[in-house]
Amino acid sequence: MIKPTLKAGLLYFMLVFGAGFLLGPIRIFWLVPRVGERAAELIEAPIMLVVTVVAARWVVRRLIVPPAPLKRLAIGVTALSLMLIAEFTVALGLRGLTIGEYLAGRDPVSGTVYLALLGLFALMPACIPEK
Q1: What is the DSSP string of the chain?
Q2: The pTM is what?
Q3: What is the spatial distance between Cα 54 and Cα 32, in angstroms, rounded to a whole number?
Q4: Per residue of the chain (131 residues), what is the pLDDT tens digit?
């Protein structure tokens, strides 16, 4: 049986990653040619922030996670770990990049926003108030 924190972290990761997976082709094939990579990533960022908040709220409430800050933070850290594994698997495996090349290739503006969103992604379950 999967531990509740691991289950919640996995579900949270799957919801947010799934949304990003669906939005990715729209960004890459439709937005980037029209507005450029930086603008496309910055347009996608607030959408992913909303997805993150909604997913964290849904997981915490659906799985009835107690308001213990460390338990909720563990959910976020678990999900962040899975997100980084997925991100680096794509960069290293499919794109053939090293971690250094991947990080160096990020736009300084949208890359910084992305890092901030990853931090919020990890913290969000701990920020969800009780009903």
Answers
A1: ---HHHHHHHHHHHHHHHHHHHHHHHIIIIIHHHH-HHHHHHHHHHHHHHHHHHHHHHHHHHTT--S-HHHHHHHHHHHHHHHHHHHHHIIIIIS---HHHHHHTS-HHHHHHHHHHHHHHHHHHHHPPP-
A2: 0.92
A3: 26
A4: 579 899 999 999 999 999 999 999 999 999 999 999 999 999 999 999 999 999 999 999 999 999 899 999 999 999 999 999 998 898 788 888 888 888 888 999 999 999 999 999 999 999 999 77
How far apart CA 120 and CA 92 sit, in angstroms, is 24
Q: Which two tokens stand for residue 42?
A: 């910055």
